[in-house]
Amino acid sequence: MKVLTINGSERARGSTWTAARQVLQHARERGCETEGVDLADKRIVRCECGRCNSRPEPCPVDDDVAAIVEAMIEADAVVLAAPVHGFGPASLMQTFIERAGVGHLRFARPLTNKIGAAVVVGRRYGHLEVHAQLLHNLLLNRFIVVGSGFPAILHSGGERGVLSDAEGMDALRRTVDRIVDIGTALAASGTALPVPGEIERRLGRTG
Ligand SMILES: Cc1cc2nc3c(=O)[nH]c(=O)nc-3n(C[C@H](O)[C@H](O)[C@H](O)COP(=O)(O)O)c2cc1C
Questions:
Q1: Which residue owns the Cα nearest ligand 1 atom 2?
Q2: Is 89 in the pocket of ligand 1 (CB under 6 A)?
Q3: pLDDT tens-digit profile, the chain (207 residues)
Q4: Could you tell me if the CB of 150 is within 6 A of ligand 1?
Q5: Does 5 contact ligand 1 (Cβ within 6 A)?
Q6: How many folded domains does the chain comprise?
Q7: Which residue lies with its CA nearest to atom 5 of ligand 1?
Q8: Which residue's CA lies nearest to atom 28 of ligand 1?
Q9: How far apart are CA 203 and CA 18, in angstroms?
Q10: Contact between residue 195 and residue 112 where contact means Cβ atoms under 8 Å apart
Q11: Partner residues linked to 5 by β-bridges
């Protein structure tokens, strides 16, 4: 199974990157193929039209969002990793969620039934709100959301940054274990889950 992380920090090699690397390393230890996308290394422009929610076709803006959506489609599990900025998700992650969600994913929900999880990094305040926001977006896209029990939130203020947060790192690793365990069990079960777009077809809608 393939696990993809999306690091939504403006600092391409900061604390959130470290947390995302930990996800990928543990996933590899569990036998997964992995890929890490750092949004700061990509070209992601803010929506300038404001019409995407009523546009009948995908967003025409020519930046890296469509390619990242393709990487999500190729993965079996996606972990959204974001820092807390101003009590909310960092604006780069928020921009990506809006552009990908409304501009590309809204039509056929191609990420339906993939495993999804969230990791949040911050100094002290607002982690749970951002974690909930990321999970809502995963649920909107019909991911099967998994967690470790306690959410994978990390405090970045320690001497070794997020690596000093032993409890947060434990939650992160347990989250990866749940991703691999549930993903493997689902794949082995052969259970037929709803395919992308099935709900729209049933309702006679496009998105
Ligand atoms: C603009 C800005 C706003 C921030 N707001 C918060 C906040 O509301 N709550 C918090 O706990 N940390 C906040 N922080 C701290 C970051 O979440 C923390 O430094 C985190 O490690 C940043 O991740 P990064 O290293 O991947 O950039 C803020 C940092 C910045 C730059």
A1: 85
A2: no
A3: 999 999 999 998 999 999 999 999 999 999 999 999 999 999 999 998 888 888 889 999 999 999 999 999 999 999 999 999 999 999 999 999 999 999 999 988 999 999 999 999 999 999 999 999 999 999 999 999 999 899 999 999 999 999 999 999 999 999 999 999 999 999 999 888 878 777 777 777 765
A4: no
A5: no
A6: 1
A7: 85
A8: 85
A9: 43
A10: yes
A11: 36, 79
Give the separation between CA 9 and CA 186, rounded to whole angstroms.
31
CA of 155 to the centre of ligand 1 (A): 10
Place of tokens 């056929």: 108
DSSP string, 185-196: HHHHHT--PPPT
Give CA–CA dist 198/207, Å, rounded: 11
Residue 119, domain CATH: 3.40.50.360
Range of the domain at 199: 2-203
Ligand 1 atom with minimal separation from the 127 CA: 11
- Max CA separation in the chain (angstroms): 55
CB count, 10 Å around CB of 185? 10
Give me ligand 1 centre to Cα 161, in Å.
12
Q: Are 19 and 47 contacting, i.e. CB atoms less than 8 angstroms apart?
A: no
